[in-house]
Each structure stands twice: as C-alpha cells, then as structure tokens.
Amino acid sequence: MGFGYTIRCKSCTYCFGAMLGTGMLYSSAMAYRECDEDGQPIICVSVKDKSIRKKVSDILDDNTCTEEYYEDLYICPKCMRFANGFYFKLNTSSGEYIPEYRCEECETVLKRIKEVNSEKDNDGDRHLSFKYRNGRKVRWKCPECGCDKMTTDTMIMWD
To answer: Partners of 87 in the beta sheet?
Structure first.
C-alpha cells in the first residue's frame, strides 16, 4: 500500500504532494515485465526521464530484477525542491543499476530521503527536517521564499 501527504510553505504558495510506497499494481511482474493498458511495464510508465526508460528497457532484456522498488521521496540538495521518483534496483552483469534523477528546476542530481520529521517550535510553528540515506540531517527551507515554516496535511492511502 502506498501513502501520501502534502507539504506547504506557510509564507508563500509552494506546495508539494509526496507519494510514497507501492500499490497493488506494483507486483514484480507488473513492475518489470507485464504491461499496463498501453503495453508498457509499470517501471517504464512511472519513470519520466526518457534516457532512464531506455536504459531500463535495454537492461530488462538480459538481466534479473530485484523486489526492491517503490515510489520514493527525493530532494534537490541545491534548491531544496522535493520530487517524487520511482526507486528501483536492477542486477546487471556489470553490477547494479539504480536510476539517478535530476531536479527539473536546476538539473542537480536528486538525493533520496531516508526520513522526514516535522518539529514544532515554542511559537507553535512547524519546521521540516529530513535525513539523507547517509544519515546527514538537514533543515528544509522553502525553495521559493526561503522560509523554514511549513505545514503538512492530506494524508492519503493508495493502492
């Protein structure tokens, strides 16, 4: 089951909808081999970057897949914009292939986020911090206005 929530800046109109996890259509067969109604494996539909889709298509012909794949949360370390991305790992004869996504705004390589925390200060304002996969903790600032106050809402569950 997947889940999602919305992150909003308290000072401007910046808003991001995070979608995480897997739904019922994300079986390994559907993700890598079987096709949706348009004849594409889920992985090729979920990944927007054409060069990554091409690489995946080439790899899938001759290699094995892992059961590790899901919608994940990424962030640009330069401009602090969030992004949703389909994380997956493919085993190839030369090692593992893990996609590398780029920020749509500044083209910097995105980093996967391990955990997101919302902390309340003495004034009742919420501040967002997150940890990268390497454990480094960073306090989020809005990419539009630089404010560090935010709200989260609209928790949803999806299949």
So the answer is: 70
57-82 residue pLDDT tens: 777 766 566 667 788 899 999 999 99
- Look-up of token digits 């955990």: 115
Please indicate, yes or no, whether the overall pTM of this predicted structure exceeds 0.85.
Answer: no
DSSP class of 67: E
**Residues 147, 53: Cα–Cα separation, whole Å:** 36
**Which structural domain, as residue segments, surrounds residue 124?**
2-158
Which residue is associated with the tokens 């569950």? 157
Give per-residue pLDDT as tens, 2-25. 778 888 999 999 999 888 777 665
Overall number of domains in the chain: 1
The CA distance from 89 to 119, in Å, is 32
